[in-house]
Write a structure and sequence with these properties.
Length: 409
Amino acid sequence: MSKAIVFPSLNEQMDIIKRGSVEIIPEEELENKIRKSLKENKPLNIKLGCDPTRPDLHLGHSVVLRKLAQFQSLGHQAVLIIGDFTGMIGDPSGRNSTRPPLTFEESRQNAQSYIEQASKILDKDKTKIVYNSDWLGKMNFEEVIKLASKYTVARMLERDDFTKRFKGGIPISMHEILYPLAQAMDSVAIESDVELGGTDQKFNLLVGRDIQREHGMEPQVILTMPLLVGTDGVEKMSKSYDNYIGISDDPKDIYGKTLSIPDDLIYKYYELTTDIPIDELQKVKNLLEDKSNNPRDIKRTLAKKLVEMYYNKDKAELAEKEFDKIFINKGIPENIEIYKVENDQEISIIELMVEIGFASSNAEARRLIQQGGVSIDGNKIQDIKETIAVSNEMVLKVGKRKFMKLTYK
């Protein structure tokens, strides 16, 4: 005989579920689903789909993953759908052009890294991980036509990004129109009760409700989460904007990047990227509203919290000490990598930065130098054409956090 699941009360569940959420559509249906779950002692299927377009996750991705983990902590079944098939289509959400599709092999390869990193947030042993190629890859052309007949072109063009592209004369490919229907079939396949996503996914999630109805199923409730603004305080967090904090970043980088977020984002980061209790969240709000407090101190606590979440308490303490040494005491990290060059060899500073990975291209290296972000032994490099002759040991610093000790072979 299976052991009964002990679920929190409806009100307790709703308090946790609503934290940080933008919309629950419809909220009344979610309450009814939870009531039924409590009565039948049966967990709800909570769906999160992800196309592994990139193998690395950042705090922006963690927002919706943390919401899935919250449902998991309430006793519900977390279902992580890896879009190895839909990744080959390319999700057009929030884009004004076609997203480059992945190959099946790229999707699967990225998925492994995605799962490993997502496991820092989810309880992997209790998470159901499925691949949508298992059902989408088996559909024949007749079945695709029948699925396409369930939705109209007019409805599809209600999507904000499609509308803008259509009015702007920017092409919309047929495979992009099929994407929301493919995502909807994921909801049918796993009998989703609730689907999570960012606000940019709202249209796709609503299509899932419609297609479930067409299959005679009770439609899923959708819950949207905000898109986390990056460290620049302007754009949504993205590697493309270089305003991200990676959940697999080095502890000192997580700490340092967190301290660079604007003060007006501190509360949102506490709310969306941590699981501190609601009463502690209120204390953070009170501290921020008290003008006698320095926001930097509240940010330091957040930075340590994030490092502790993705590593441990000791790493968080070390990251703080390292930051203080470099940025407050103007010191050099104790353990920095060593790069060896040929004895007496002169090397272009730009070539060196690209070679050791401190700049992704010559153009980026030039920009960093021109912005005054490059120095050797504390002396700023002014000339983009400068060459370095390494003698004994020299310390190259790029930006605020990148250090390399240069020596000769």
